[in-house]
């Protein structure tokens, strides 16, 4: 388990991360979201021990990262925003070098990660000849050489084409069977596709931390009916109707009622309202993200505080 307890990271008077706390259980896939400058990369660097919090504490399986960073880092795989690759080396040589730094047997772990990241056809190529997408795969490969229990990925699908992106998502889900995964991304579809939970940062503060199924859930329903149907009058005190389009309504049960779709449908039909379609409203993650950040002003700060 990863625990962050009221962590703060300051650069002078600027708080890149401001009093953030969370717990991440083993096996979760967590999406870390936020605009540039929200604090995502700073949190990832603190989790890995690359930088220290100005105050607060981070513990990994009960071990304080500041007190024993090497113990924690031995269990972590990290794909930073800036790829940790040597352009003059071949893919195979670079991964063998990275394996050696970790004290691993390159003859066993390198072929495995090359297969997992679909780098076979590029294994002997120099890294500086690769496309951005293939370089990204090399970065992921080095992060999983040692079968880490905790995997931190900063924009893992950056530069990948749609087919490569799908493979990356499948790989992340596969890795989560044995590892806790934290990924930072600007792609909402990626969070929807692979994450169990979303943490949304705004100006260094954690403003939302919920499981995706709870974020999407609402008590409202969407109704399609005749364009001129008097839905709001028919609902009386049972619910509140808001017209959202030509013959479309958003219906929110009043707080004092627990009316579900069956109750609302029966009430509408009895009131003579044609029900062409009625379904639960599904909250869109991208819309929610925009709503969370709509009142965010232009945030100043250092370039590293992404």
Topology of helices and strands:
Layout: E1 2-11, E2 14-24, E3 29-33, H1 40-47, E4 55-60, E5 63-64, H2 69-73, E6 76-79, H3 91-101, H4 106-116, H5 132-143, E7 150-154, H6 162-175, E8 180-184, H7 188-194, E9 197-202, E10 205-211, H8 212-216, E11 221-224, H9 231-235, E12 239-245, E13 248-253, H10 261-270, E14 277-280, H11 285-293
Parallel strand pairs: 3-8, 3-9, 6-7, 7-8
Antiparallel strand pairs: 1-2, 1-4, 4-5, 9-10, 11-13, 11-14, 12-13
Quick summary:
With 306 residues, the chain is an alpha/beta fold. The protein contains 11 helices and 14 strands. Helix 6 links the parallel strand 7 (150-154) and strand 8.
Give helix % range. Answer: 25-40%
* Head-to-tail CA distance between termini: 24 Å
Strand count, sense and barrel status of the largest sheet are: 6 strands, mixed
Q: What oligomeric state is this?
A: single chain
Give the DSSP E fraction (strand runs of 2 or more residues): 25-35%
CATH topology of the largest domain: Rossmann fold
Low-confidence stretches: 297-305
Query: What is the level 1 CATH name of the largest domain?
Result: Alpha Beta
Give me the number of helical elements: 11
Name the strands of the widest sheet in spatial order. 6-7-8-3-9-10
The CATH superfamily of the largest domain is known as: P-loop containing nucleotide triphosphate hydrolases
Radius of gyration: 24 Å
How would you spell out the order of helices and strands?
EEEHEEHEHHHEHEHEEHEHEEHEH
